[in-house]
Amino acid sequence: MTSHYRVFNFTFSLAAKNGNITVLEHLIERIYRKHADVRGRREALSATDAYHLTPLHYAVKYDHLDAAQILLDKGADVNASGDYDVTPLHYAIRFMVKDCSMMQLLISNNATINAKDKFSSTPLHYACLKGNVKAVKELLKAKNVDIEAKDQLNSTPLHSCCINGNIAIAKMLIDCNANIVAVNDAGFTPLHNACTQGNIELLSYLFEVMENLDKSLLPTLISRQNKEGQSFIHLAVLGSYSAIVKLLLEKGCDVNQCMDGEETPLHIATVIGNIEIVEFLLLHGADVEKRNSIGRTALHKAADFGKYEILELLISKNADIDRFDNSYLTPLLLASSRPGNQKTIQTLLKCGAQVDLTNTEEQTALHIAVINNNVDGVELLLSFLEAKKIIDMSDKDNNTCLHIACKSGFEKIAIMLMDANANVRSRNNFEQTPLHLAAFFGQEDVVDNILEINPSVINDLDREGNSPLHLAAMNGHVNVISFLLKSGASINDKNTKGFTPLVCAVKKGQTEAVKKLILEGANIATAESGQGPLHLSCAKGHSKTVEVLLDHCNINETDAFGNNPLDICIDGCKIDAAKTLLSHPDWRIVLQNKTIDLVTMKVTTPLRKMIKKLPDLALFTFDKCITDSNHLTNDPEYNITLDYEFLDDTYSQWPCDTVQKHSLKGSTTDDIYSPENIQKKMESKKAHCLSWMIKYKQKELIAHPLVMSLIAKKWQQFAIFIYYLKLMLYVMFLLSLTMYVLTTAPLRTPYRADDCLLQVDKSQWDLFFFVYIGKVVVVFLSLAHMLFEIIQLMNQRLSYFAFGNLLEWTVYILAIVNVADDFLPLVVNIPGYNGIICGTYQKAAGALCIFLAWFNFILFIQKVPMFGIYIVMLLFVITTFMKFFVVFVFLIIAFGLSFYLLFHDYNELPAFHHPFTALVKTGVMMTGEITFDDVFSNNLSYLDKPFVTVTWIIFLLFLIIMVIVLMNLLVGLAVDDIQAVQKEAELSKATMQIEICLDSEKILPQKLRMQFVKFKSQTFYPNKDGLPLNISSEVYQSIQDILKERKDNEFGVNEELRDIHDSVTAIDEKLKEIEKQMQEVNDVNEQLNNLQSMMVEVLKHQRRRSSKSKTKADE
Known about the structure:
Number of helices: 54
Distance between the termini: 110 Å
Shape: extended
Helix content: 55-70%
Structural class: mainly alpha
Strand order of the largest sheet: 3-4-7
Strand content: under 5%
């Protein structure tokens, strides 16, 4: 819709609304000029505005008859739907002011008499609901008016009329045969509506009509119920219509008829509080003992809602005063639950209600009054002589009224009960006194009152041995703790678990309570179990409490298992508490602890545990190990210190307190680890922190500048020399062995068993260098390497026996064996010897030795970062293949044996003559060496036809499964392995360098190792001396980032403290200003007082003068 069109519609509607005939005619003329056809003109004249109303709606609404006439004459739609689908005829009735002229105009122009709006209401519904007699009369004249039209709720016009209460309209509708008993969706007839509105005149008329129609139907009609089970009597009582109730009772309605919930009219009248209706009902036989669905009588209702006058009336009618409902509540119990219900309680007590009756919770009326803080009710019950006997009665949990009052903090009630001699030492099922509950729930005023009345209960214990102080500490109620301690509570008493109040507060993380108890002298010593308050707080992860306890406890105190507070935090993954410990000035001490892992029985430290379980905490610790001086960053004296003590702690002399192995029974312990054994475990390569990072693949930790600088330092100090020395010696050994084997191999063929002495010319240079000298070099270097391995074995012990080391031993032994025969002439005289010895095993030993030696060389250079990643890829693929080969080999067996059975007797295929060679040939065929023409094309002619078929089937299966599927699967697995290695390239590179450093470290003798390896820390001056060799520019930049972030955080904290200080200072200044102003006010008041005194003296003086003057005048 264009803006021009919207403006036109607005103008058109406005003209109709204001009844401006001139503008209206002008606009209609424009429409006629624009639209030549009747349909177009009709649509334009009946177009709606933004409020979904046509001009005709506005003309009708504002009673502009001329405007409406013009619009209808020009073709406006008389039945156009507007907002909520209302037609102009609906509007004519709804907004009728004077007469029916507008309605008559619309009807005369064929307005639909039974048109329905969005709620299915017709014009007749509108007229009846508004009580428009003229409109109803006019509508009923129409021949086709639907007198029984149903709206959205299936209500007829007579329903609407009875809501309005217009008897004249009702008579007109009934005269037109309207259905007087029509039922809508709510189950209401027109009579129900009349009853609901309290229109007795209309209801009497309708009853009269019903009696005239059929008097026998009236009782049935009167008892008819709607969807909620409400009959006429219920509706009348709900509306508190006494006259209608009286009328219904006279008409014979059932006085005890029940609605939903089994509520009778008496129940409803009692709740409403209409005593007149109650009297009517009782007079007509209402059952005072009738129970609703929850078992309550009218007396229960009266007591519950405080209708004490009705209560007296019902009791006078012999209602059972102590009757229980379904929840075992008597009227007195219900009345006690309502504050402000004193008169009801008083009436019940006066009429003899039993005070000792209880509900399902075994609670008396006094209990219920206390629970609901009904102070007046409690006072009233206590003033009643018979109620004295229930003051110490207990509920099913053995809680007395005093227990409940103390628990909820109802001070006034508690004082009343104690003044009435309630037993302050009574105990519930948990052996708790009222003071225990008051302390547990922090009801300080109640605690104060109890202790004032009876201080002897202050150290009473409950079932678990808790005193009130234990419970107050457990829940952090500092004020209660203060009251109890001032009153003499024992601060160090232990409960049945051995916990003092301080320990209870610590376990629950009640920091303020911990502060208070420590301030009051609570014992912070470690318990017999070995766990002190600090250990318990760390186990629970209460960082704020840990912070408080650190000012009073030994930060490195260990428990029975040797765990210090940091160990406990890490074991329980309590990061915040651990950071609190590491932020303490003595944070280094808490890291200096060794323990035995009770699962693996290996030595561990806090840092190792962090590496395994909490790498983020390990990063936090590494950051703490990097510090700088207070100089400016561009100052020559500016220095940075890297602390390696905890990262490289093999020879750190830390205590390992109470290193014990616990038996499986848990009953005995014995010390089995001596300091020497602990040190041996620490010297293991796998025990090093760097090895733990590799084991648990902690890439972020390895990339930390502290770790990178340590690795680089180890590499540059000794690892690079040891590694490349060993590599150089191995290369020399490998070249010597290779040239020896290659040179001697041709001389030893063909093999002659009877004569193995070969005559050779020693003058040949290759024989001289590679054989006669080469064999000596091979033996010498083999022995040298074996010596290295022996040293390594002595240092590493059981951890030495790994695949790589065993492979090296095999290579060196085979090398010596391979050249051993050539040393026989040195020890055995062989006549005519002029060459090399041709042993019987040289070929096999030489082949195996040279293969293993070169394979070992591949493993050796694996640890060189430049080549290592590719060798790792190779090993990954080999490992994956070996795992897959378990399944793979069964398929080779399946196809190999099948081919053996088919081809074993064919001479031209010797590979299939034996089962083993058939398996090998099948494996070779997988690589593409199928030799299809020889095997499957040229050599099938002799086979019988069935065998040819079977052969082709097996071959095709082999081609699909083994050549296509399995080979592609192997390629896919290899690709996945390579991608996995590439993703972990940085980790792999660092791992190789760490392996070299640690392996090189283990080669050194212990004394030499302790001299070279034990780096406590490293301090360097970047502005004066530049960067050390082990710290690259990237590592240095990472160090700077860590230091900058720490300073920024410290600056932020300082800023917050400064802001707080400024705020406090500003408040102090304002207080001083207020004090100054108060002093000025006091000064002004003092001056006013002085002035007032002076004025009083002046007035007195004037009175004395005037009296003297009067006396003189009289004289």
